């Protein structure tokens, strides 16, 4: 019986996103707890509005690290210069609803969740 020899791809791609477009991930570190300002005129909404001036947000993770950080997935690739532009725009928000965003940092990341670093799911089974 004839066999088919597969040669392409030569190896599996292990780092990819497939949601009709390439995705990029980044984590914001606000430097302060932001969970006290979640309303429609709050600091987190100002952050979302600023991100959306540059990117389409596909997913936003929960607040973590004492409510000081949040990870996002956005459409498109983010190069270092764009991350710096986003960081500058976020820092320029200054103080919104008593939350000082002037120290906010943007860290580009890949999609990886270490089991010891996983954020607890409140609906865990």
Note down, in words, how this protein is organized:
By secondary structure, this protein is of the alpha+beta class. The protein has a single domain (23-110), classed as Alpha-Beta Plaits, CATH 3.30.70. 19% of the residues lie in helices and 22% in strands. The protein is built from 2 helices and 6 strands, in the order βαββαβββ. The chain has helices at residues 43-54, 80-91; strands at residues 23-29, 57-60, 69-75, 95-96, 99-100, 105-109. The strands form 2 sheets. It has a 4-stranded antiparallel β-sheet, with helices on one face. A two-stranded antiparallel sheet has the order 4-5. The termini are far apart.
Percent helix, as a range, is: 10-25%
Integer count of domains: 1
Computed structural class: alpha+beta
Briefly note the CATH topology name. Alpha-Beta Plaits
- The H-and-E topology, N to C, reads as EHEEHEEE
CA distance, first residue to last residue: 48 Å
| Total beta strands | 6
Mean pLDDT: 85
CATH class: Alpha Beta
Give a brief outline of the structure.
The chain has helices at residues 43-54, 80-91, and strands spanning 23-29, 57-60, 69-75, 95-96, 99-100, 105-109. By secondary structure, it is an alpha+beta fold.
Compile the SSE list and pairings.
Layout: E1 23-29, H1 43-54, E2 57-60, E3 69-75, H2 80-91, E4 95-96, E5 99-100, E6 105-109
Antiparallel strand pairs: 1-3, 1-6, 2-3, 4-5
Features:
single chain; 125 residues; alpha+beta; Alpha-Beta Plaits; four-stranded antiparallel β-sheet; two-stranded antiparallel sheet; 2 helices; 22% strand
